[in-house]
Give the backbone structure.
Amino acid sequence: MHSVFDCSIVDLPVVHRENGNISVLENNQNIPFDIKRIYYLYDVPYGSERGGHAHYELEQYIIAACGSFTFILNDGNNIREVFLNSPQKALHIKPGIWREIKDFSGGSICLVLASHQYSESDYMRNYEDYLKYVNNDSSIS
Ligand code: TYD
């Protein structure tokens, strides 16, 4: 079982030019899992919150491609808030971490690189069941 302290902020490579920057992530080069899916959150209304779930297997790199937002990471024992506001950094979320996302700035884009294709069966969406899972309760379905 991973803790919130196993999640890390990764500095992404940056190709600086006077006319703009490029950051690149490539499988087998500088990301510790194979990227199977890319998705992004955008047009998040002011004051909205997202997340409210954990994953059994999924690992993610989260990048504030534009603007800023805050991830609240929770492993059932520890809570950690991570503010993301740079396209030059990624938050690496390990499997089994409950997350909530808040304080989206206007026009922000939350880019997610994911280790698996979408599967609803990989989600834990009930916090009480999540706590049973992290406490190794085998009675949950
Ligand atoms: P969810 O992962 O719960 O969003 P967030 O963590 O940003 O609050 O997904 C919201 C909805 O979108 C849910 O009904 C499933 C759907 N969805 C897909 O169909 N494919 C995907 O790759 C993702 C991430 C979500």
